[in-house]
Design a protein that fits this description.
about 150 residues; mainly alpha; 3-stranded antiparallel β-sheet; 6 helices; 3 strands; about 60% helix
């Protein structure tokens, strides 16, 4: 397995987009549960579900999605589709703590107008900020013979 090349760095971004399509229904289910518990909103000015609760539970859903997949197999479904695998800097599977650190750093990367993600095109080994902070990297898996 090898580090990402510039061409393969596009795979990382495409895998993120793929995973967003998988996370969206999870966030909808999260909102459904909250609306079921708190009831529907009567007016926009006075929402039934507090915004902080929606944000907090959404963060838990997203973090659980990524850390769960990374810890179990080193790959989310988007990463599987694009043959990417997350490992630590020594090439070993990551632990749960390292997964949470990566998630927190990915939030930082996104909050900086996505600069942390685009950093892969400027770093010599195509590593993002969250790769560097969490001491992880993505490897491209070889094609399976059919």
């Amino acid at each position: 397995m090898a580090h990402l090349s510039t061409l393969s760095a596009w795979r990382q971004l495409l895998a993120v987009i793929y995973d967003l399509f998988l996370i969206a229904p999870l966030l909808m289910a999260n909102a459904f549960v909250l609306v079921t518990v708190f009831g529907p909103t009567d007016s926009v000015a006075n929402p039934a579900v507090p915004s902080w609760l929606i944000q907090a539970t959404s963060l838990v859903v997203i973090t659980t999605f990524f850390v769960g997949f990374w810890y179990k197999s080193g790959q989310t479904l988007g990463m599987q589709a694009w043959r990417l695998k997350l490992v630590d800097d020594l090439g070993h599977p990551i632990g749960v703590k390292q997964g949470y650190i990566r998630c927190a750093a990915a939030c930082l990367s996104a909050l900086a107008l996505g600069l942390g993600y685009w950093w892969i095109f400027f770093h010599p080994q195509n590593r993002s900020w969250h790769d560097l902070i969490s001491k992880t990297h993505l490897e491209v898996l070889p094609k399976k013979n059919s």
